[in-house]
């Protein structure tokens, strides 16, 4: 029986021309909770649980590593909305503290919960578009998967 050795991989312009991944389109699709590749399949199977793969195009989502970045981004975004609002209302109207707390605490909670899933989807979309964390079609040899 003859043994066949795999052909040596030689880089050419054609091997570098793989699937074009538009970063902004992928981020927008992820923000909407859709597959960053096709835009049709669902990205999440629960509130913050990313599905294993796309139900439409079959893209594997398991290599994503969003970790704490979505939470940090939500803190920054909500802080940039709530803090200036609180400062403007405080300087212009000076409402009592109990009224301010009854407005700003629920506002902060609602904004945080509303933005957490879309921001996580956008991070996963960005990781796919930039071929980060195992989303690369041709990962370098000798590097174990994460």
Radius of gyration based on Cα positions: 22 Å
Spatial separation of the terminal alpha carbons: 37 Å
Tell how many strands the DSSP assignment holds: 0
- Summed up, the domain count is 1
Shape: elongated
Which band does the percent of strand residues land in? under 5%
Q: Can you summarize the main beta sheet?
A: none
Number of helices: 4
Helix fraction, binned, reads: 40-55%
Q: Please provide the ordered H/E string of secondary-structure elements.
A: HHHH
Secondary-structure-derived class: mainly alpha
Write structural notes for this entry:
There is one protein chain. The protein has 146 residues and is an all-alpha fold. It has one domain. Helix content is 49%, strand content 0%. The protein is built from 4 helices and no strands. Helix 3 runs antiparallel to helix 4. The longest helix is centred in the last third of the chain and has 33 residues. It is elongated. The model has no long low-confidence stretch (mean pLDDT 87).
Can you summarize this structure?
The protein is an all-alpha fold.
Descriptive tags:
146 residues, 4 helices, 0% strand, elongated
Topology:
Blueprint: H1 13-16, H2 23-31, H3 69-93, H4 97-129
């Amino acid at each position: 029986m003859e043994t066949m050795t795999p052909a040596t991989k030689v880089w050419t312009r054609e091997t570098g021309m793989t699937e074009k991944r538009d970063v902004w389109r992928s981020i927008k699709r992820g923000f909407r909770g859709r597959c960053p590749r096709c835009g049709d399949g669902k990205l999440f199977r629960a509130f913050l649980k990313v599905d294993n793969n796309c139900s439409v195009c079959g893209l594997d989502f398991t290599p994503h590593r969003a970790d704490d970045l979505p939470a940090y981004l939500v803190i920054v975004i909500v802080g940039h909305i709530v803090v200036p609002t609180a400062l403007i209302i405080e300087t212009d109207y000076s409402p009592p503290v109990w009224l301010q707390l009854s407005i700003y605490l629920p506002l902060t909670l609602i904004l945080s919960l509303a933005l957490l899933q879309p921001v996580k989807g956008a991070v996963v979309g960005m990781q796919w578009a930039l071929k980060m964390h195992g989303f690369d079609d041709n990962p370098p040899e000798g590097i174990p998967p994460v």
